[in-house]
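Q: What would this chain look like folded?
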Amino acid sequence: MKKLNFITPKDLLDTYYKGFAQKQGWEAVISDDFKFVGGDMSKTEPIVGKQAYIDIIKRFSQLFQNMRPKQMIIDGDNACGIENYDYIFPNGKAINGDVATIWKVKNNKLDALTIFFDTIIFQVENLKRNNLEY
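A: My prediction, written as structure tokens:
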């Protein structure tokens, strides 16, 4: 990542999403004590640490083929976004779905992320797989 004298939250998010979509190069903008809440929303305590988040994303990146940021609202050191994913599951099933993200920036790094998945997509696919109607 090119060193800038002043890095905006938009710069950080642009770098993150460009690298995330390519599945490489996003790690540089993550803080060492990064806080992540997501996946299982019944667990509200964050997973803390850059390496812990990297490990989660290594597993998650096996489930998506493409990712596109759709919308981003930035207010100071806070941001909210909507991203769109093309998921491909180990059984070969492909679906498309959106996620909502809430970001916090601290000391010129992405410092926290809470992610919300559109779980209805997964529920509908599960029903279809079991030959049930939604």
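The radius of gyration is 16 Å.
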